[in-house]
């Protein structure tokens, strides 16, 4: 949560993306930046189509920041597709005039799978929502981390 000079909470919506080869998981924060909600799983149809749909979503929610998960190997090195993911995110950020924040998304899909299995979601349905859940987990971790940095216990 961000605050104005007068001490009031400032509304800031963040759009989070979990970009894969076939799908893009999309999540947004609530206006106060406390919780993450899944928006949709975008089936990838090509650069222009993906960018157009992401722009629609970002404008619909009035986002002021884009958080993009970057795939890394367990040793910390960026995976091969990271450059393409950053290119998409930066194009989106430039079109909206908002900053892009890259973050480590290692194991987010695996964690999303665990959460969905624990919730007894069928394998078929998991396949349709796992990317959205991964985006939610990436965003919620970011929100929790930034809140903790601003408000240490």
UniProtKB/TrEMBL annotation:
Organism the protein comes from: Desulfobacca acetoxidans
InterPro entries assigned to the protein according to its UniProt record, in alphabetical order: RNaseH-like_sf, YqgF, YqgF/RNaseH-like_dom, YqgF/RNaseH-like_dom_sf
Main enzyme class: hydrolase
GO MF term list: hydrolase activity, acting on ester bonds; nuclease activity
Protein's name according to its UniProt entry: Putative pre-16S rRNA nuclease
CDD domains in alphabetical order: YqgF
Gene encoding the protein: ruvX
Residues in the signal sequence: none
HAMAP family (alphabetical): Nuclease_YqgF
């Amino acid at each position: 949560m961000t605050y104005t000079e007068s001490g009031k909470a400032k509304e800031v919506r963040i759009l989070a993306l979990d970009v894969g080869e076939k799908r893009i998981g999309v999540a947004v924060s609530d206006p106060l930046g406390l919780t993450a909600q899944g928006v949709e799983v975008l089936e990838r149809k090509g650069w222009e189509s993906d960018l157009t749909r992401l722009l629609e979503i970002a404008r619909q929610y009035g986002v002021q920041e884009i958080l993009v998960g970057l795939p890394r190997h367990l040793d910390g090195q960026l995976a091969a597709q990271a450059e393409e993911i950053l290119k998409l995110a930066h194009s989106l950020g430039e079109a909206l005039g908002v900053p892009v924040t890259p973050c480590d998304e290692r194991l987010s899909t695996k964690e999303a799978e665990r959460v969905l299995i624990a919730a007894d979601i069928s394998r078929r349905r998991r396949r349709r929502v796992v990317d959205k859940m991964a985006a939610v987990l990436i965003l919620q971790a970011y929100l929790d981390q930034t809140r903790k940095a601003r408000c240490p216990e």
